[in-house]
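To: structure desk
From: M.T.
Subject: fold request, one chain
Message: Could you run this one when you get a chance? Sequence is below, nothing fancy, just the single chain.
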Amino acid sequence: MKRGFCLLLVLGVVTKASALDPTEDYPNYKALAANGRVDLYWKLNTAKTIITFEIIAKTNGWVGFGISPNGVMPGSDIMTAWVANGNAFLQDRFATANSKPAVDQSQDWHLINTFESGLYTVVIVKRAVVTCDANSDDVPIEDGTTTVIWALGTAGDPANADDLYYHQYANRGIQSVYLLSEYTPVTLPGDAFVRSFQMDNVVATTSTTDTVYRCMYVKLPSFSTKHHVVRVSPLITAGNVDLVHHMLLYECPSFTAAEASGLDGYVFDCGYTSTEQMPCISIIAGLELNGRSYDFPASAGYPLASNSARYAVLELHYNNPDNAIAAGRRDSSGLRLHITPTLRTYDAAQLEIGAEVSPLMMIPPYFDRLTVPGYCSPACTTDAFPSGGIHVYAAYLHAHLLATAIRVYIKRESGNIELLAADNHYNYDYQYTKSFATPINIKPVRKTFI
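Reply: Done. Structure tokens follow.
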């Protein structure tokens, strides 16, 4: 069995809330508003030059959806659509202020279909990833976090194409999303089976902090021969999609019988102020906010061997900005491991690089930006990589609240520097796994990350 497939950090969660199903099976989904009020589905063509959106919104008035360069309405590329008397209307607009956006001279949003179904309006549109609008009134979709905005007109259809009435404060929103995803689900083998790990009705919100970390020791399944984990999927407690930020499953070192006594199901606080020591640091799998079930590449799986660790720690991060959710909400979320005895060619693993959080990590006075470097040196790759190197199939870029951009580079033996992954609009509240269509080979000794 070859060892050499690697994910740079973690992995993907999903829940559909709308009362309507989309008109086709899209590979990508994002809830733009809670309780199925606005759901977004999308797909890319093979060349990744055209993107198709399907928006399902709970309104019988107009639907607005747009791409924002900076998270606000001014400068946003917006489409508005509605159905009136059986006729469909679509307009490409551009916002210069927090007011009704002007109709764009170049109409680069193209209508595929719009219809009403009960209380909902469905809008299916497409546009080029980069439109080349001569007036620069369109926002290009970059390979990284994209900020999308939405608004609903709830007072019926506009009287005419020029009468786009105000949506009111409660009928608009903003979300971050990774639109250029290359994720493709992999067919599971017929002998795959599931093992689930869930929190046990833990307290997920308090009155003193908006961030809660809960950890629980779980006993891993025992096998006489090596197995591979090939998919990780979410288990989210009903009504807690807005609360679960991300989750991780850490593999523990081998414990003695005395050390393992009473561990299974033991729950503890594992936040920054916790005094509990957690010796489990090797990541088996993870799922981030509003992603999807994650499939390992068809040629790789995470190994669970007969001599593997017998215990793991399930960690859940609950995010409750401004304590909007009342203290005392409980949660039993977790994840499923899809496991097969049919081994794939490669064992998968996670490689973490970057700068560890430290009290010395501070922004000096009067600095408007600061770059914090982290390195994986030739000495590091020599110790950690097999002789043929590793094949990186995905990257998960992670930082905390003050980060605005993250980039990972490879320095090759020739001196060439390659950009491995980047997000120029990083948003802590939206993190995702970037999968590579072709795994990237990185060899030890004279190759390094920067």
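Reply (cont.): The two ends are 30 Å apart (CA to CA). Let me know if you need anything else for the meeting.
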